Amino acid sequence: MTGTDRLAPVTERAARWQTLVPDAVPPAGPDLMVALDIDGTLLTHDGGLGPEVRSAVADLRDSGTHVVLATGRSVQATVPVARELGLTDGAMVCSNGAVCVRIDPGHELGYEITDVVTFDPGPALRLLREELPDGLFAVEDLGRGYKVTAPFPMGELTGEVEVVPFEELLEAPATRVTLRAPHLSSADFDALVDRIGLHGVGYAVGWTAWLDISPEGVNKASALEMLRGRLDVGDGATVAMGDGGNDLEMLAWAAHGVAMGNAGQHVQAVADAVTGDVHEDGAAVVLRALLER
Question: Which domain of life is it from (predicted)?
Answer without folding.
Answer: Bacteria
